Known about the structure:
Blueprint: E1 2-5, H1 8-12, H2 16-28, E2 32-35, H3 44-50, H4 52-68, E3 73-75, H5 79-93, H6 96-106, E4 115-117, H7 119-126, E5 142-145, H8 155-158, H9 168-175, E6 179-180, H10 199-215, E7 220-223, H11 226-233, H12 236-243, E8 251-253, H13 254-261, H14 266-269, H15 287-291
Parallel strand pairs: 1-2, 1-3, 3-4, 5-6, 5-7, 7-8
Amino acid sequence: MKLGLYPGCSLKGGSREYKESVAALAEAFEIELYEIPDWNCCGATAAHNLNHDLSLSLPARIIALAEKEGLEEIVVPCAACYSRLSITVHELKNDENLRKKISEIIQIEYKGTIRILNIIQMIQKYIGKKIQGRIINPFNYKVACYYGCLLVRPHQILKFDRPEDPQTMDVLLKEIGATPIDWAYKVECCGAGMSVSRTDIVAMLSGKIMKDAIDRGAEAIIVICPMCHSNLDMRRPEINKYLCQKTDIPVIYISQAIGMAIGIDSLSLGLHRHFVPVSLPVKEKTVEENQG
């Protein structure tokens, strides 16, 4: 199985452990991830605030390059990148004149023939049914599945899961033995790109997310977005200061959690790169948890 991969800027830099874990998981299930040659930044949060044509041209070029490679699907692990590519597909599909204009700008014909997959969709489609038979170390922890604000919104375009109470990640985590908690912050914003310019806002927003997860008994927070991971993990000192307490709950990518459950070593999963140590000792489920 060959799938296109758009890593985006984060997975090549500050969130390289995400790319490592996605690659390790794909290899374990015999999925070939083909990185799109000569890819560029998708524009993230900046482009669509400055120039509409630019905000479409950057993702359109990525997709057009993938089309030239004969790919049918692109896996986009970053939630922000997934949002920008999906919105571009939607806009160009519904406006032929705009599609032609963008093709002229990028100087590559954009056809719009490729399907964009987020990491959960990739796991569901190509790994989900195989997970049960591969579990070596059941992930027997209470987890807070944190989707963030971009994976499910805008719902009318993405049409992925429920915008207020998504469940797809919860279902996958149950498959590896985890117990997802019912909590109030699974789609709230962590502060996103304000991590440098307004760290105080990130500390407040991410602090509220952290507190609710801990108050409801979560032992780990599971994420799919590099920015969410960065804010909840790297900004932990600022979060602790805002909460007036020390927190040591780890923040783990879904690819890392599944990788741990099927026995992929921690080095291949990039677990050593986290700011907050991932310390989750193997444990058995209690009688109450098994009955639940």
